[in-house]
Specification:
Length: 468
């Protein structure tokens, strides 16, 4: 087990650094501690009562065994394609980007498993191009269709298309051979299909919503197939569990993270920007956006009162977005909390070439390491943000490894649970996503939604008067 850690650094949100107007004073921190400590205890009690099931995922050894077995069963494939969307895709993407080399799919020397693709959309151009590339490689391809419900239009359409392609190209028996389903254990459309067709299958655990499911078979299978050490991933999550379960506010990084975010939401900073200074961590920021947005964006509190609450999560990438967003971040409205992701040891490095004679001004770069440049850019940007009175948290990774990624995932899931309690909302539902899904069913001609299709007409039919 690794000793490497993920830690939260919060000095740069304090009044000591930012002054009283934008910083949090010791007194305010003590007030937050008083509010959050009972919440942490309540969450621990709910968890013990089996009400917060994602918290137990790091300990599901039976799932790990099933996932490893399924991964071994496809170890001769050359392409592994995940079909899914939202919580059934973003965790997979985040794990692949963070733990596989940048050139993984293109360079066989840089990968331990098959090429990995996660198709989290139904864009006809993108999908058309992909299907045309994969169509003569189907005999060496395995598809993992992931859907808790099985009725999500995007995933269902991908599944239907792939099944037909497999049947046409390789014969009726091929579907069973080339498809693994990950779905609800007992109910839902994909469960019915998997049982009927006799597909190999894994379970989306009962009581675990999509955006909290990355440490279940949902995210673990593609990771294991790619050769990522899933034991270490879960060990990292378990290690973070011991930290985020602590009742003492000042010992608990999830408690402080949630409290700082909640404090700023209530003090005119309702936008939360996550800015990784590491390409590997970039898609974890996408995963975080869904976790934060779907969990905390709610119209009603737990008593049914309308509150329309929720911080807006934004993703930016260091250093790329310094040249795109930082002008706004420093001189625009002071309405954001920044969370920078720092990597101490990148594990690989590039030495910058020497400067030409005509450009001695580039000499400061010559022979330096790119890791030093990127980390200097992070510190420089943080300094500049603080100079403008903008609060900054940092999540520091000793290194990017399965162990630290497991820690980060668990830290943010636990943070979200605490933040949900602070906002007084149901963290685990997503009622507002339903209407859009149903409208799609209606527009695609699903008879059960004919009435809704009529209601949509006034906005779906273009009024030429307003078309210029
Ligand atoms: O987090 C969630 O619950 C959602 O993003 C779902 O994962 C997403 O809508 C896909 O749903 P399903 O897994 O049922 O296809």
């Amino acid at each position: 087990m690794s000793n490497n850690q993920v830690k939260l650094y919060y000095k740069n949100v304090t009044s000591q650094v930012l002054g009283q107007e934008h910083g949090i004073t010791d007194k305010q921190f003590d007030g937050l501690a008083k509010k959050v400590e009972p919440i942490v205890e309540r969450i621990e009690a709910q968890r013990k009562a089996g009400e917060i099931k994602y918290r137990d995922l790091p300990y599901k050894t039976d799932t790990v065994e099933q996932v490893k077995k399924a991964a071994q069963s496809v170890d001769d494939c050359e392409n592994f394609v995940v079909l899914g969307i939202g919580g059934s895709a973003l965790g997979n993407i985040a794990l692949q980007t963070s733990l596989n080399p940048y050139m993984y799919n293109l360079d066989s020397a840089q990968r331990k498993g098959p090429r990995i693709f996660v198709m989290d959309n139904v864009d006809p151009v993108q999908m058309g191009s992909f299907f045309s590339w994969i169509s003569d490689k189907l005999d060496k391809t395995v598809f993992n269709v992931i859907s808790k419900s099985g009725r999500t239009a995007e995933t269902a359409s991908q599944f239907l298309t792939v099944s037909e392609m497999l049947k046409k190209r390789l014969g009726a028996g091929a579907v069973k051979e080339h498809l693994i389903a990950t779905t609800d254990a007992n109910s839902g459309t994909l469960r019915a299909i998997a049982d009927d067709m006799g597909l190999r299958n894994l379970e989306v655990p009962d009581g675990v919503g999509g955006r909290f499911s990355v440490l279940s078979a949902v995210g673990l299978l593609s990771a294991a197939v790619a050769g990522i050490d899933i034991d270490e991933l879960l060990a990292g999550a378990a290690q973070m569990d011991s930290k985020v379960s602590q009742a003492s506010f000042y010992q608990n990084p999830a408690a402080i993270n949630a409290a700082v975010n909640w404090h700023y939401y209530n003090n005119a900073k309702r936008i939360s920007v996550m800015m990784p200074y590491s390409y590997a961590l970039k898609d974890l920021a996408d995963w975080y956006r869904q976790l934060w947005a779907e969990s905390l964006g709610k119209a009603k509190d737990l008593t049914g009162r309308e509150i329309f609450v929720g911080p807006t999560p934004v993703k930016a990438l260091g250093a790329t977005d310094q040249h795109s967003q930082v002008q706004l971040y420093r001189e625009g409205p002071n309405d954001k909390l920044f969370t920078l992701l720092e990597v101490k040891e990148f594990g690989a490095d590039v030495t910058i070439g020497s400067e030409p004679e005509v450009a001695p001004e580039l000499g400061y770069l010559a022979g330096a390491k790119m890791s030093k440049l990127l980390n200097s850019e992070r510190i420089g940007t943080e300094y500049a943000l603080l100079k403008s009175g903008r609060p900054c948290l940092t999540v520091a990774f000793d290194e990017v490894s399965p162990y630290t990624i497991g820690q980060f995932i668990y830290l943010y899931e636990a943070t979200t649970s605490i933040a949900g309690e602070l906002f007084g909302i149901n963290t685990y539902d997503q009622p507002a996503v339903e209407l859009g899904k149903e409208a799609t069913f209606a527009l695609m001609g699903n008879e059960d939604y004919a009435e809704l299709a009529e209601k949509i007409k006034p906005i779906s039919e273009i009024d030429d008067k307003y078309l210029i």
